[in-house]
Structure formats: C-alpha cells, structure tokens
Amino acid sequence: MAFQYRPDVFPKFPVEIYKAGSDEPTVYEIPMIGYVPKEVHEEVDDVITKRIEDVQKRRDDRNKKRQVIPGSDRKLQFPDDSDVMDELLKRLAPELAVEVDGWPLMPRQELWKDWTEASKPADPEKSDASSDSSDATE
Questions:
Q1: For 75-119, what is each residue's pLDDT tens digit?
Q2: Which of the 8 DSSP states describes residue 126?
Q3: Structural domain boundaries, residue 101
C-alpha cells in the first residue's frame, strides 16, 4: 500500500466549551501538534524567539543598573507553554483563542497538557497489538 498524504483527514483534537447554564457545548477542532502546518510552527517560533530576546534584553538592562527583576512583571517573564499555546491557537482557531484568553491559569494549563498528551504518537509497547503473551503465567 502506498503512503498517502491527506491533510483533510489529519487527526484533530476536540475542545468542548460549555457556556454557563448550557448543556450543549461549542466544539472546536484543532490539529494534533504534529499536524500543525510548518508555516504556523515557524511563525510561532519567530514570535516566541523575539519575545525571549526582548525579555533577555530588559533583564540585562535591569541587571546592569542593579535593579530588582520582579517575577510578577510580565515584560520580564520568559514565555512559557501557555504563551506557545496562545500563539498556536491565534493561528489555528482564532475564535477558540479568544475564549481561552479569558480562562484562569489552571484550565489553560490543563488544555495544553491534554492537547500535547493526545498529540503524542502511540507507544507500541503499550499497544494491545504488540502485547507479549509469553509473560502470562500458567
């Protein structure tokens, strides 16, 4: 069988958002991390790299002046996973990005964790098809 490249059938990660008092979710589907288009990855990498450079410059300037670097100052914080997720969502699902932007920290971190976990390739050692029956005791 030949290898088939079909971007229209790439695996997706569903995100269900329930509005207060609603039983029906709004469902967004975003590609698994490994299926995000290369140009999107490159754009996000550029944005995050620029932010790292800006933060480092600000921190270096403060260090030269012997000024305190407060951990709560967003302009002095290096980007984290939530920042990467925000940049990806802005490009992949702008409406979802707006929703997630208003969330508290924990749900945002849980979304990133669940999305990255779901995006991992299947572990062949944990697959039912590859289980070794010779380990069974008689």
A1: 999 999 999 999 999 999 999 999 999 999 999 999 999 999 999
A2: T
A3: 11-18+25-105
